[in-house]
Write a structure and sequence with these properties.
Elements (H helix, E strand, L loop, with lengths): L1 E3 L5 E5 L2 E9 L12 E8 L3 E3 L6 E9 L2 E5 L5 E3 L5 E4 L4 E4 L2 E9 L3 E10 L4 E3 L7 E9 L1 E5 L2 E5 L4 E5 L4 E4 L4 E10 L2
Antiparallel strand pairs: 1-17, 2-3, 3-4, 4-11, 5-10, 6-9, 6-11, 7-8, 7-10, 12-19, 13-18, 14-17, 14-19, 15-16, 15-18
């Protein structure tokens, strides 16, 4: 288990805002080299229109955390995304975006890694989340609120923008005195 806080993340600038990398695999991989199996990040989009970086070797999962965004792939129909609405697309598609927001991203290396992302809203009662049986790594990211995550007998207090990286396939129990919005990613290799 690895409990991470915002000060542990890698922050970089892009033409339309900032990107905060929460986790990458393998840990020594560098995003710019395009040699990673998977990457989880959150970006601020501070411009009204932008064009996504082409990532032909990757499948992308994206959702707005705050604000809305509209995506268009290869001149196709526009896809409107409200907060926490997930959208999956091929990273090599020419993709344009409209709308200022903060988004959440999971990138998976095609033919080498697979996985999925989901939004979970917790309450004050215990909620047990169970991963896909193929999952080998899980990241829980607290978007807002606070919660206690229980996994493998350990208890971890997650506040806003904190995350928990779990190695292995483990169910996670969530509880707390207030509701929390979480993004949960689970990843596995295809070898």
């Amino acid at each position: 288990m690895l409990h991470r806080k915002p000060s542990d993340y890698t922050v970089s600038r892009w033409a339309g805002g900032t990107t905060t990398q929460m986790a990458i695999s393998p840990p020594e991989a560098v995003y710019a080299d395009r040699s990673f199996l998977w990457r989880i990040s959150s970006a601020t989009v501070d411009v009204k229109e932008s064009t996504f970086t082409s990532l032909p070797d990757y499948e992308r999962w994206i959702c707005p955390l705050q604000g809305e965004m509209c995506l268009r792939h290869g001149g196709g129909a526009e896809v409107r995304l409200a907060p926490f609405a997930l959208h999956v697309f091929h990273g090599g598609d020419e993709t344009t975006s409209r709308g200022c927001c903060t988004d959440f991203n999971l990138m998976l290396r095609r033919d080498l890694a697979d996985g999925k992302a989901e939004h979970l809203e917790t309450g004050t009662d215990l909620l047990v989340w169970t991963p896909d049986e193929r999952a080998r790594e899980i990241l829980v990211y607290c978007v807002s609120g606070r919660c206690t995550a229980e996994a493998s007998g350990g208890f971890y207090e997650l506040g806003e923008r904190e995350s928990l990286l779990i190695r292995g396939n483990r169910s996670v129990g969530f509880s707390g005195a207030e509701p929390a919005h979480l993004m949960i990613c689970q990843m596995w290799t295809l070898c």
